[in-house]
Amino acid sequence: MDERIFSLLKPLLDNQDYLNSVDVYKNQPIDIKLDMYRDMPINQLFDNITYASITTGIRPDYSLPFLKADNHTEIKDKIIIQRTFRYRNDFINYNFLNNHEDLYFVGTKDEYLDMKKEIKNLNFYDCKNFLDMANLINSSKLVIANSSIAFPIAEGLNKPRLLESCPYFPAAQPHGINAYSFYFQPHFESLFNKLMKI
Question: For the domain that residue 144 is a member of, what is the CATH number?
């Protein structure tokens, strides 16, 4: 994590009641080294969110939210999309979303312009930081993302969500209620329709 990512993440972490303080590591004492799984004899391609459970021996109830965010002041009940250039699934496309309105993309401008080639009516929302993104997601109807920051935020807020699963690096997995992954186009579209009815 570089300074830019830390500066984007810190407001979201500061907003959580269960964290006393958030700071850059400067040789402070460590109670639990959460990345110790990297030294363990386990497959590194498996479920990201489970690594902390392996390290601590605690498995949370993922049907309950574990992040806190406010509602966005202006944008509500929209479909939020994030699709990074990494971890894409070449078996699927987003063309069917051209039949839907109220689509907002979060991510980089280049990623947005690339998605705009498939989804003509896609809007761009330039998040100030990840707390701003969390507020937008908290106010959303549905989140669609590949392995990126938007999906774990949606997990933490327990919003209806779809994960574009990456065939060659399936490290992200959905947890909790109204959370699904897809590898193939028919599943993507049917799960989308299912969550839109919630």
Answer: 3.40.50
